[in-house]
Design goal:
Blueprint: E1 5-10, E2 18-19, E3 22-23, E4 26-31, H1 62-66, H2 70-107, E5 110-122, E6 136-144, E7 155-156, E8 166-171, H3 178-184, E9 193-198, E10 205-207, H4 212-215, H5 218-245
Antiparallel strand pairs: 1-4, 2-3, 5-6, 5-9, 6-8, 7-8, 9-10
Length: 273
């Protein structure tokens, strides 16, 4: 009794069969002789050396779409590291400002002084101002008692009998709220007595006992802290994703399948008898 067999060779470009340039070739073999195994070429099964295993069933998530392969994951990790460098530079700037304020309030000499004037200032309408938002701050005019040789603010009273002969300007941090700046005016009354911190090597002066909320750059602290926390978390995610991809074939790609239907050249039928 004659025997014939039909083998179908199917080349499919969809994601379930193709991974980039390497594709699986599936064989459907039918035998007309019941009870005999399906064989080709004298009992040897045909195969392809470039066949790859199917995509892991649990690798369907937002991360697989964002980082489908090693190359994309390494690229995103490099971008994250670059943003972390920028964040680190911002942190250094904020840390320098915080340290400078802390050092001044714990090491500068204190003199007895008085608030001689106060006003709310803003950068609105100032030459060279390119800021997108208007900033407000309070400036206090103060006078304090130090020897003439220690007054480095540049303003000294001409009256030798004036006990508060040295004058300077104390500036608060800035805010984008005019109402907040006006509320800061209430912290000190005009002609009220205050302690004055003065820089022994420069013109800067500060008022003793100001609120921490008023003197430290909290906006910068919050922005840089949030920036670093976000990108450090994202860096950890990319590292974990890369470690997972390294357990898979080197050319593994979890990109979504192509939406184009297979063309005429995508299906080849071979009939063997």
């Amino acid at each position: 009794m004659g025997t014939s067999a039909l083998a179908s060779l199917r080349w499919d470009h969809t994601e379930s069969h193709c991974n980039r340039y390497r594709c699986r070739i599936s064989f459907d073999i039918k035998s007309r002789v019941p009870g005999k195994p399906n064989r080709i070429n004298g009992g040897r099964f045909m195969s392809t050396p470039s066949a790859l295993s199917s995509q892991p069933g649990n690798d369907v998530s937002f991360l697989s779409a964002l980082m489908p392969n090693r190359a994309r994951t390494r690229f995103l990790r490099g971008i994250v590291l670059l943003f972390l460098v920028f964040g680190a530079l911002g942190c250094l700037s904020v840390a320098a400002s915080v340290f400078s304020e802390f050092y001044a309030r714990h090491s500068w000499p204190v003199a007895q002084g008085q608030v001689s004037g106060m006003d709310v200032k803003s950068n609105k309408g100032r030459p060279g101002n390119n800021a997108r938002h208007t900033s407000y701050w309070v400036e206090y005019e103060v006078r304090f008692d130090v020897p003439a040789g220690q007054c480095l603010t540049g303003t000294i009273s001409a009256d030798d009998q004036d006990p508060l002969s040295c004058s300077g300007t104390v500036r608060t941090r800035s805010t984008e709220s005019a109402a907040t700046a006006n509320a800061w005016l209430l912290h000190h009354r005009l002609n009220s007595d205050v302690g004055i911190l003065h820089d022994p090597h420069g013109p800067n002066v500060k008022i003793v006992g100001e609120s921490l909320w008023l003197v430290y750059p909290w906006k910068g602290i919050l922005i840089t802290s949030g920036w670093m926390a976000f990108f450090l978390t994202f860096l950890n995610i990319t590292q974990r994703r890369l470690r997972y991809l390294q357990t898979l074939p080197e050319d593994y790609d979890a990109s979504p399948p192509s939406s184009q239907p297979p063309g005429p050249a995508d299906l080849i039928d071979l009939k063997l008898s």
